[in-house]
Amino acid sequence: MLGGGRKLEKVVEDRRLRNRHGVFFDRAEAGRYLAEMLKPAVGGEGAVLAIPAGGVPVGVEVALALGLGFGLAVVRKVLIPWNREAGYGAVAWDGTVLINERLRWMLGLPEEVVEEGIEEARKCVRERVERFLKILPQPRVEEREAILVDDGLASGYTMLAAVKALRKQRPRRVIVAVPTASGDAVELLEPHVDLLVVANLRYEPIYAVADAYKRWRDLDEEEVAEILRDYLRRAKAG
Questions:
Q1: Is the pTM of this model over 0.85?
Q2: What domains are there in the chain, each with its CATH number?
């Protein structure tokens, strides 16, 4: 039973970190911690797919620690026009669109504004796919375990769009693994995955992913590209 809600059978958390802030130094440390939590749950062939930008340094550490293939799950939030840090939906790499209709209604967004937001997200996804896949080809996930990773889950809608898109590739299992998540996001995602691993689960009135980290900043696309190139060097070195 999590946060007084319904019992979630497919969630693994570290209860020692429940509702704590500043539990990780940075995203790389969080990825290594997450890998240790995943070791008992992951077996056989599989791949780690990270959501750019913040999920990439987390996913790199998970993939290297577990000896799994690594790739990207390119998903972009559909942004609220007057708050470019927040979203009310997401667009995935295969064109999957997911809109939080309740939030959209609360925001009072007309259809034409929603369509403009979706198209802006689609454009960003296309550009990221084109840029990043030149550096790092996608691993095969059909009939394998697929582990979706991000640096944290606030609403969960971006990750849910990734899960729905990934299911179309017919993986054997879909696992979502994150260093930190809100209780609401976990409860949204749990019915759609085979397993959800979260280190720092937090139930609080105002949740921010950044609060789980001592060192936090946004990553730009060139930094993501460099992390991918560094991953290739590290993977080659063994």
A1: yes
A2: 11-74+138-237 (3.40.50.2020)
